[in-house]
Amino acid sequence: MNKATNITPEEAVRFLLDNDDFIILSHANPDGDTFGCAYGLCGALQRIGKRAKTLCADPLSERFSYLKDAIEEQNFTEKTVVSVDVADRSLLGGLEEKYGDKIDLAIDHHISHRPFGRKIYVDDTAAAACEIVYDLALCLGEGAVDEKVAKCFYTGIATDTGCFKFGNTTRITHEKAGKLMEYGFDAATLNYVLFDMKTKARIKLEQYVFENIQFFDGDRGALIILSKDILDSVDTEDVNGISALPRQIQGVEVGIVLKEKKDGWKASMRSLNIDVQRICGQFGGGGHIRAAGCSFTGISADEAAEKIKKAVSESLA
Questions:
Q1: What's the alpha-carbon Rg for the chain, to the nearest Å?
Q2: Bridge-partner residues for 267, per DSSP?
Q3: pLDDT at 317
Q4: What is the rounded CA–CA span in Å between residue 247 and residue 236?
Q5: Residue 232 pLDDT more than 80?
Q6: How far from each other are the two terminal CA atoms of the chain, in whole angstroms?
Q7: Which residue among 7, 41, 52, 317 is least crowded, i.e. fewest CB within 10 A of its CB?
Q8: pTM beyond 0.85, yes or no
Q9: What is the mean pLDDT of residues 200-204?
């Protein structure tokens, strides 16, 4: 991370107050944190009289459809481009060509952040980008955060910590989640929607995963390969939730899900104690110490799997 270009939170707030006509970009293959940031920040800006809208290369999952309640659809020509929870401009997916070199402010929490915005505000100690954006929103003015906006920020914090189970969860994480709950949304029902509710397609996908999982290195590593045919039959968020499954198996220290994309394969890694961000970094990827990803092009799934397994085994040695 380039510390020299990282502005202070006070400067980030001033930037948001001094500008208008925002378009807020999420990363491709979106999760609850990037969407929670985008819709939460958009709603907060609208509540203080700014014009703002969100954009993502991939559609909003049905599971997160309630996030739309926090914003109003506004038509205007964007002047200020902000990215949230985007560690690298390439992660913008289909939006990179148009917006990759036009980011005015990049807000992120990834330790592997590769600076691409004119200004960046990165806090890699935050469990979720929504922790950061929530703090900024509170400083925008009275009324910027209400029940619907708070629900967005809670979504990002809860999902990026696995409902507060992952190692990135801190005392501050719990405190911020508690403050957000004070806005009055139904946290119990929201947690059910985010973590317990499963579609029939998700159940079938889990069945496939457990029937086809590959164990290696004395069962300390577990890998599953998901072809595009399988992925196209389920909702995006159902696929995101699969990434944690291999790691849940007793004795597995590193779980890997290899997903087919248009131009190759994307690996999502989850671990208990191994630095998977370092492993993914060997292949040009990144993320967090316990949750990271990388991509492979020009090779088969089996070839990508062998590269990953070799790198993981070396880390487990």
A1: 19
A2: 258, 294
A3: 84
A4: 20
A5: yes
A6: 28
A7: 317
A8: yes
A9: 89
Q: At 191, list the tokens.
A: 């947690």
| Beta pairing class for 119-122 and 254-261 | unpaired
Q: What angle do CA 222, 277, 12 make, to 5 degrees?
A: 140
Give the residue carrying structure tokens 């492979």: 296
The token duo for 261 is: 């994309």
Q: Which two tokens stand for residue 282?
A: 């060997």
Dihedral sign for Cα 228, 247, 84, 69, please.
positive
Residue with tokens 């999982």: 213
